[in-house]
Design goal:
Distance between the termini: 17 Å
Structural class: alpha+beta
Shape: globular
Number of strands: 9
Strand content: 25-35%
Order of helices and strands: EEHHHEHEEHHEHEEE
Helix content: 10-25%
Largest sheet: 6 strands, antiparallel
Radius of gyration: 19 Å
Length: 238
């Protein structure tokens, strides 16, 4: 396993796509010239640092065959921020879409094949800013044998997508991730609580099973001023 480390202690880090669509939560604006002799100004809580450790994928895989209560207590949010689901406003939205030419090339399948698109967001209840945002694609044919995997109301799923895939007999072998930085829009700066000039890190991650198939593709966004990333990892077989 080769491991690369990206760190920056105004922090820094990874993965792709814009959380700027209508209806997504944004960080609150502070009022400008409030004068109130009796009211005390509320102090804003800063966003949590994010760390994506090199062994997180393996740690999640190790949880797959553990009891549900253990899987529910030790998910990706706990591993990356130290927070729990109770600390965030969680949202999951599933839609069925057809594979574009670009996604078909990533999956190695024909365009037009049905995909389940799963969009996730978590907003810190204390700061009002994003803790995470991601979108995931899985070919419907891979998971439709378990109808529970087609229902967004079953999110957050204890054990995450590795356990979801495990329920239909899929074991992951590795992740392949590409990262790049972009300049955020004004809306994105508000949503992530970023200062002017701080970039976002975007990335695309492929989940590849032990047969060499791309079984899931995700795109995520991370704030570059508080994220630390460690990559790449190969997963141990069961």
């Amino acid at each position: 396993m080769s491991v690369g480390v990206i760190e920056h202690f105004e922090p820094i880090e990874v993965t792709e796509r814009h959380p700027e669509q209508a209806g997504r939560p944004s960080s609150p604006f502070e009022r400008g010239h409030q004068r109130c002799p009796v009211a005390q100004a509320r102090q804003r809580v800063g966003p949590q640092p994010i760390k994506l450790p090199a062994e997180m994928g393996q740690a999640m895989k190790n949880l797959v065959r553990e009891p549900e209560d253990m899987r529910a207590a030790s998910g990706a949010l706990e591993m990356t921020t130290g927070d729990s689901v109770q600390d965030v406003e969680f949202s999951a939205n599933y839609t069925e879409v057809e594979t574009t030419e670009e996604l078909a090339q990533e999956f190695g399948i024909e365009a037009g094949v049905s995909l389940i698109k799963r969009e996730y967001s978590m907003v810190d209840k204390r700061s009002g800013t994003y803790t995470s945002w991601s979108v995931s694609y899985i070919p419907r044919a891979l998971i439709e044998s378990n109808p529970a995997l087609l229902d967004e109301n079953n999110e957050p799923w204890p054990g995450g997508h590795q356990h979801q895939l495990y329920t239909v007999g899929i074991e992951l072998d590795r992740f392949e991730t590409t990262l790049w930085s972009v300049t955020p829009t004004t809306i994105e700066r508000q949503q992530w609580g970023l200062n002017e000039g701080v970039p976002l890190l975007r990335g695309r991650s492929k989940s590849i099973d032990i047969e060499g198939r791309v079984v899931e593709l995700s795109e995520a966004v991370y704030p570059a001023d508080r994220t630390e990333v460690c990559y790449v990892e190969r997963l141990d077989r069961w």
